[in-house]
Amino acid sequence: MRTLVTTSLACATAIGTVLGVPPAAAAAPTEITVYVNPSGTATASAEADTATASAAGAGLAADRAVRTLSDAVRVVKARGAGVSKATMVLAPGVYSGSIDPGADLPATSLAVKCRNATLDGKGAAGYAITLRTSRSSVEGCRIKNYTVGGVLASGSGALSGIVVRKTTFSDLGTKRKKNRGKNGFGAVHLKNVRSAKITGNTFLRLENSQRYKKRVNGKLEVIDKYGNMHGVYFAVRSSGSKRAYNVVKGNTFDTISGDPIRMSDGSSYVYASANKFRNAGSNGMVTYWWFSRDRRCAKHNYAYKNSGRSGYKRPGGSSKTIPHVKSASGCSGSVKDGAAPR
Fold first, then answer.
1. CA atoms within 13 A on the CB side of 157
2. Separation of CA 192 from chain center
3. Which of 105, 125, 315, 323 could form a cystine bridge with 101, CB 3.0-4.6 A?
4. Which one of 115, 139, 166 terminates a domain?
5. Domain span at 64
6. In total, how many domains does the chain have?
7. 74 compared with 315, residue with greater pLDDT
8. From residue 58, how far is each of 67, 212, 227, 235 by CA, in Å?
9. Model confidence at 179: pLDDT above 70
């Protein structure tokens, strides 16, 4: 038996040596931090994907920062097995591309922390950051020039504890000439989320093109899609609970062609408070909508002590005062003025 144990320990030590990890540290850490810097010198392709990676390999230390968002994703996917939390730290600078670890993210959660960093889509379709696991977050970023949206939270099931804070979203949607592709949906697009917190963010110039032409049944028709671009959009049964509302608090919304805060698909228990609106909203500031895919009405959505009523100024038109809250036709009371009951 002693020989068997000794042999096993020798094998474990040998494996640790091959991976470049000291024997005592062979077990996977509970958290990892991946550093990204536009002037970084490391690349992920050589170190993250081979068995000879060292413990302080590409991206795992500030002085070994990887240069690109795609490299950072590779490191997380290669090193994230058994990890409870992966954090990406973005140094000052401008980054192109996007962050999406995919459905097979090995870590339990992903946090993206920006240190005076900007994600510039340069007109690309899609989202800047996609969160696919619960307790994931985005903090302190500047996100601009993506067509469809800024942050998407969408997993294989319900996601809880999503946080987006102190982030600036600007120039999203299709109105900018360089932003091409599908119409935008939302700067923060949430699908099937619970107890999300969207706080202290700035939403600026989120606009779709007002009109475009499309051939329908052989006839050229003008399609009006400017109103589809929202600030925070709760979709696909994004319902909190009496003890854990989805919270949208202390944000600024300026020049939003759709509605600043929108719910649909039965999304309930959303609490919007202390937000500021300017030149924003095509139907209302905090609205509930239904589609043929899901015509259920919502409940327990509240808007309280928000400021600003000037609606979005359409090209060639003028801004007008629009309702603070508005529910879908036939769903009276899906959004109510007032504080959420405790």
1. 2
2. 13
3. 105
4. 115
5. 28-115
6. 2
7. 74
8. 10, 46, 44, 37
9. yes
